Amino acid sequence: MKETRTTYSYLIEHMKDPSFRKIRELACDFVRKLPSELCDELHNSLNRGVDVLDSEPLLQMYFYSFGDMHKAKLDYAFDNLHGYIKEANSVELIDYGCGQGLATMCYHDYISNVNPSQIVTKITLIEPSEMAMSRAELLCSAFYPNAKIVPINRGFDKLSSTDIELSNDIPTIHLFSNILDVESFDIEHFAHIIIDSSKGANEYVIVSPIQNNRRMQRLRTFSNILGNRPYFEKYLDKREFREGKEWTCAVLLCSTSNESYDELYEEAIFYIKNKIRNEKCQLVFHKLYVASLSGNVKCQNALGLFYKLGIGTYKDEVKAFEWFSKSSEGNFPPAITNLAICYFKGVGTDVDFFKAFNLFENAKQLGYLPSYGYLARCYMQGKGIGKDIDKAVRMLLYASDKNDAYSQVDLGACYLDGLGVEKDYAKAIDLIKSASEKGNVKAHCLLGKCYREGLGVNINIPEAIKYYTKAGLLENKHSILALIEIFEEKEYKKLFGDEQFDVFVKGVSLGMREISRITIADNDKDPEEIEDGDVIYGSNCKRVLWTMGHDLDY
Questions:
Q1: CA-wise closest residue to 433 among 477, 461, 466
Q2: Residue 294 pLDDT greater than 90, yes or no
Q3: How confident is residue 532, by pLDDT bands cut at 50, 70 and 90?
Q4: Helix, strand or coil, per DSSP, at residue 177
Q5: 513 falls in which pLDDT band (50, 70, 90)?
Q6: 334: helix, coil or strand?
Q7: Is 101 left (phi over 0), alpha (psi -120 to 50) or beta?
Q8: Which phi and psi (to 5°) does residue 57 adopt?
Q9: Three-state DSSP class for 199?
């Protein structure tokens, strides 16, 4: 179906760095060569751009007459897209009623300036005119030579949900440029087709001229059926949109995800607890962003944690604080606790122990057990409230009895040190082990210390390494440093293997300045041949060479 063996296709196929402006200039060149009366006749045949384009002259006249207006509206819409979609590594596009593919071309020019590294992996073009579709395939393949292009040559009323295939792993941008206001198809049927076919994260870009109320209502009906209120909605009348132009502009931007929010939240928590950072977590971040915009408090809290830890996105403590705040407005106890931690530690905001204490207290009133441990810390240290060790211990005892891991490890530490209770190593170890079995990173680290120093247990360096490794893999810096110290003692080097090396790599990724060199030597390379800074991965690792550098110039 793609246009080939025409003069026009020859020009496009050999055009260097294609752009919207270059394509429109071809149309302008065509129109300039026409007699004025023929230009008027062709322009009138367009019926304000509503009718199907079924001839070469009409394709050129449409681009000439409406191209600049289309681009201005789309650029305005793209400017207001959420940052997450513009920052995405890869996206898919669907261009509905694509005509010659103007919207898809405009997105190319826009994203090339904003995020030139973004990859468009697939483009679906939907258009009833065979001639326009043929032209769209030609142009889009020139703009996106590596994208898979899927043409669907039919009207919207003949579409089915099986025609549109979306990825569950890559966000999709749906482009509706000057099409939803056209009254030649059933808008409700069309909207349901899109809902039924949707997967993963979806961004809907709707642009249109301002028409009568009936035609504008079609845009609102469509977004309402999607089930999500537009996060951006603007109506600009003549000369409001572009000074000196008679153009009008309606823009609606919506985001949706067809995934269960509870399932998405549980998936996000898995990445958070295990400190996993890979390509998949970027998609989870995108889905969380969409769900958070819809007001889901669980996903808002998880999004805050993604920003705080730099999972699936860049680390941004201010944004983390903002999303914890939004989620807290919905009385979600974990978010209230996370917001309190921000005030307690000065994460994304100024330290305010009084606010922190009150927020911890609010979470406690909502029955959130982990808040007891944080409140106990406030009482232990006299931050935000008068110092009261006895009350702190009572809180830890209450939450520990209800199996809260955070309180168990802190109460265990109290028994180790005799803080507010009599020293009892047996109770301490039992509590800390219980918390460790629940995956508590602080408990892992403390057990490592107990086995290394013989606190309540016999000294057992292999056990210490085991627990420090568990905590180190979860990015606990104290445990990573402890492993480094143990490794420097020659008699324990043989206890270190691939898992401990993974912990050291975590330390490098965390920017720990104590680490200056990690090398792996395998059977095929002598350690003496390894250069400083080398990291050699091998399936037959025999030794880990570790050199500490405290005098490095950073």
A1: 466
A2: no
A3: very low
A4: strand
A5: low
A6: helix
A7: left
A8: -60, -35
A9: coil
Spatial contact of 304 and 321, defined as CB atoms under 8 Å apart: yes
Neighbours of 319 (CB within 10 A): 18
State both tokens at 74: 């789309």
What is the mean predicted confidence (pLDDT) over 210-233? 84
Q: Where are the alpha helices (DSSP H) in 80-165?
A: 83-87, 102-114, 130-143
CA–CA distance, 551 with 554 (Å, rounded to integer) = 9
User: Given its phi and psi angles, is residue 521 left (phi above 0), alpha (psi -120 to 50 degrees) or beta?
Assistant: beta
Can you give the pTM of this predicted structure?
A: 0.59
Closest CA to 429 of 460, 398, 473, 394: 460
Res 526 pLDDT > 70: no
**Angle at CA 338, nearest 5°, toward 334 and 342?**
170
Q: What share of the chain is helix, strand, coil (3-state, %, to 5)?
A: 55, 10, 35
CA dist 138 → 106, 258, 390, 398 (Å) = 15, 32, 76, 70
pLDDT at residue 527 is higher than 50: no
Task: Please determine, for residue 549, whether its predicted confidence score (pLDDT) is greater than 60.
Answer: no
Q: Whole-angstrom Cα distance, residue 247 to residue 65?
A: 12
What architecture is domain 7-240? 3-Layer(aba) Sandwich (3.40)
pLDDT band of 279, cuts 50, 70, 90: confident
pLDDT tier for residue 431 given thresholds of 50, 70 and 90: very high
pLDDT at 12: 94
Q: Are 261 and 427 in contact (CB under 8 A)?
A: no
How long, in residues, is the chain?
554
Q: How many whole angstroms separate alpha carbon 367 and alpha carbon 221? A: 41
Distance between CA atoms of residues 180 and 3, nearest Å: 27
**Averaged confidence pLDDT in the chain:** 85
Closest by CA to 125, choosing from 30, 2, 248, 215, is 2
Helix (H, G, I), strand (E, B) or coil at 51: coil
- Give the containing element (helix H, strand E) for 406: helix 405-417
- For residue 78, give every residue at least 6 positions away whose Cβ sits within 8 Å of its Cβ, in sequence order, or none: 86, 106, 107, 110, 111, 114, 205
Which secondary structure element, helix H or strand E, spans residue 256, and what is its range? strand 249-257
Nearest by Cα to 254 from 204, 312, 317: 204
pLDDT tens digits, one per residue of 60-85: 888 888 889 999 999 999 999 987 78
* Helices within 181-313 (DSSP H only): 187-197, 213-226, 261-273, 279-293, 297-309
Distances (CA, A) of 149 to 31, 101, 217, 444: 29, 11, 32, 51
CB contact at 8 A, 534 and 499 = no
For the residues 137-166, what does the mean pLDDT come to? 93
Residue-wise pLDDT tens digits, 308-333: 999 988 899 999 999 999 999 988 99
For the stretch 3-31, pLDDT in tens is 999 999 999 999 999 999 999 999 999 98
Q: Characterize 495-527 residue by residue with b for buried, 16 or more Cβ atoms within 10 angstroms of its Cβ, and e for exposed.
A: ebeeebbebbbbbeeeeeeebbbbbbbeeeeee
